[in-house]
Amino acid sequence: MIPAPFLEIAVLTWGLILLMVDAFAGKTDRRGVAIAGILGLLVVLAASFFLTPPTPAAASGFWSFYTADPLAIFFKRFALVTTILVLVMAIDYAPAIRMGVPAANPHAGLGEFFTLPIFTCVGLMWMASAIDFVMIFVSLELVTMSFYVLVSFTRRNPATLEAGVKYLILSALSTGFLVYGITWIFGVTGETNLTQIGTVLATQEIDKIPLLFGIALVLVALGFKIAAVPFQIWVPDVYQGAPTPVTAFLSVGSKAAGFVVLLRVLTPFLMLPQVGRLLVGVAALTLIYGNFAALPQSNLKRLLAYSSIAHAGYLLIGVVTFSGAAVAYYLVAYLLMTLLCFAVLVVVGNSGGSDQIEDFAGLAKRSPFLAFAMLIGMISLAGVPFTAGFLGKFFIFDAAIRQHQTMLVVIGVITVGCGFYYYLKVVRAMYWLTPPADSQPVPLSALSRLTMTLLIAAIFVLGVYPQPILNALDQPAARATISMFR
Amino acid sequence: MIREYIPVLLQALVAVGFAAGALIISVLLGKSGLRTQTKDSAYECGMVPQGEAQPRFSVKFYLVAMLFILFDLEIVFMYPWAVVYREAVVHSHVIFWSMLSFVSILMVGYVYALKKGAFDWKK
After folding, report:
1. Which residues, other chains included, contact B72 with Cβ-Cβ below 8 Å and sequence gap of 6+?
2. CB-based contact, B66 to chain A, within 8 Å
3. Cβ within 8 Å, pair A16-B105
4. What is the Cα–Cα distance from A408 to A342, expressed in whole angstroms?
5. What mean pLDDT, rounded, does chain A reach?
């Protein structure tokens, strides 16, 4: 039996060891670092199933900052799985890193490219456990700082530099909003702990205006993290310019952590009706903008960026209705299908193609397996039945109807229709268009083939048997928060 | 209340008036001097100036400054730690091990910077 905080300490220590290995490795091949990282994270993932159950009495000292409730454990595993898959992609992406980093040593930069995701993973895991604004802020910063480096990693590429600068400036700005919002909330309630804030709000008479101002500022910062409209301006450019594995990490890891924090932060504030109304508006705008802006895209990475905005909209419906289980299931489905698409994108991009949809023309004839993987990813993102993406949307809409959010369901269903158009555009290019005459089959490593097969299998298994995910979150706790909302 | 500030206003008026007056009087009474290229050039101890006024300098300076900030900031944590150490260590040894882990993380950063050649001035 292992105490929960040891998971993060193990990941952090392993990351530091790998960083030292890289520093002393000289001119040897760095792919061993990535393999060691994947194996280490797998061990920690296995260890997360043997945790000591949290003692409910301990809510002081360290445990007033950190919780090991089912939601936290679930998203710790989520962060670990995401990081493992990103590292698998990063191994495939190594040749592009060599071209993008100016240095004499051909292995320069690779070690950092493989170890930084591990540190990001630590931040994501701490974020999942954070129940105090100070802890939320510190772990958020750890995640963001690692992403500053990762986003602008291939710095010879001007598009990557542009993405890095945009991400740096807008992220720093949103951090400013977060701190300012926390200050206002602390000023009104005198607490930074979320549970304590809830107690103060329930028992004392408090001036609502500064409190709403504070929570609105916090929502701005979190809206930036989860790419909700109107804080989505950075998403297309950064997603397109960043190295592809980093884009995948941003769109899954960063977004999931943002949603965990959103669920936690909103818990004490749900008795304020204004917050609920604000979120409904943001969710509707995000759904409409993300789906409609994705329609004319011709670049696959950009298309996935807009699709990531659209999926933030569906997830926000889940947050508005406060159904933690639906949000968790949707995020898992989103992880599987998004990472599958990005994995194919990395492999195809490596074999000389770019990220344009037209470069996928006739992929089914060149590499049937890759085309099939992309097909599964796309139809799951669109929400075809018997895939995880369908059930995700189903649970979200189910929760929304139960809470009588009919307007959101109507918008959601219409925008799902848009989704079919732009996702199937990629499928059409792969299966109906003829490949260029000089096209070669795309080489695929055994590790990537295994990973893609597992992802495809998981999409179908969870698409017909969602119980493991739904049961992973403690049901009584979820019900308690829903009843509080009513 | 506001009357107490009148001396301040008076002094500001005198200062502005003196500066403007000195300039105007020197323009009215003085002769305009002879200007040549040599006279307008920057004065460098009597030597003929070389190069540009803002020369490019090595990017190493920025790296050193960054590393300095990184390793200097640990003092912020160490001062309060040192102040409470004697009383806190009686209750538990956590305070010792937490600082040791913090310093060892810094150590990893130092070794990393060393191995990556951040202190190599010749490159």
Report:
1. none
2. no
3. yes
4. 29
5. 89
